[in-house]
Amino acid sequence: MNSRLMFENYKKSLEQKYYAVCFDIDGTLTEENSKVIDDRAISMIGNLLKKKIPIVFITGRGETGLNDLKENIYDKLKNDDGILEADLQRVYVLANDGARLFYSDSVSKEDFLKENIYISTTEELNQLLNINDMILKFSTNSQYSNYFNVTYSKDLKNNTIINIRMVFNTNNEDIINFMFDNITKFIKESEYENIHLTRGIYKDKSVIQIGTATKGQAIERAEKIIGVPQNSMIRIGDCGDVRGNDYTMLNCNQGYSVDKISGDVNSCFPIYDDDGNILRGIEATLHLIKKAKILPTVCLESADKKAYTHNFAGVEKDIVLGRNKLLSKYNVMINNNFNDINGIESLFDKFSGSVKIPMYEWELLKDEPLKELWSSTNNGHLKYSVRDDNNYLLRGSNTYYYFLSNRISVEGKDVTSKTDVIN
What we know:
3 domains; four-stranded antiparallel β-sheet
């Protein structure tokens, strides 16, 4: 691994503009060796929300873990001066490694992050059941059965299994890798393309997790749902090694790890301080957020209709007054130079967007190259001007009037398509 090149690429990556932030929770926002989110992290999240930045938490936790998160952050964010209810609705959670997206229709404590949609399909969830049957048979008929316990993350409403976890009570890498490789083989032979395995640590124990979503896919979907441009969400996790449960989300130019990295010099960057030293844990997360260019998108702020209408009226008033003042200035110049009294109204036909020359002035013009140009025809039709009853209108009929005379109709109905217009 080229550490110097990685450091240089890390600094370049901070030049990108981001419009949302995605945080893994455990090990990224939590206090050291704890499941509790650091108070400094909550304060940082509050400041981002005040700036109208959407926040997405992504976690292997299910609904029970989600409730712990809500208890951890809700009161502190709600009581933070300057955070509005609309700001709290910018908080989302991708649970079960992205199988479900939780959000808020309202932000009372009971309703905060209560709503959810499935990102995984029914077919994928059924495939997960088949894998579960295989694991259960293995756990009862294998010499390795005493080395792990099987736990589940389920939908609390209908008991659907969303994730399977094998929690190991051994640190023997040969045993863990044997199980990982056997499940991988079963998935491949069954052609379950959308079932994914990841490895991680939970309470100092090695865990293999099998699920229907990857964090990377889930973030791409979340960007569309919350309305930010693709690849504009900064991603921060702690298990960025190839088999880690954050790898798929961090293996990109927007990915940063506060602990394990993949070793790729162009993605899953470690986080450096200003002297080039690698930071870890919550200290790394806080430092990165200070350094990154994180901005709100212009479309995310819900407008207050009354305030918007009033402000718009004020702007329109300024535009009209300014325009009239400017027109008055130029009308005087036009009248002096063209011996007229109506200023620009005499020269410009606002209905057709044309320079307007009265017929009598046209006839009095001497023959000269410009008159010859504007009078030129093609198959008997004027090429660069048209005539109404009293004036020459200097604007090409081949461009301006094309769609008036060449629209497509069927039985009196206009059926001109976008493709027709482009052609």
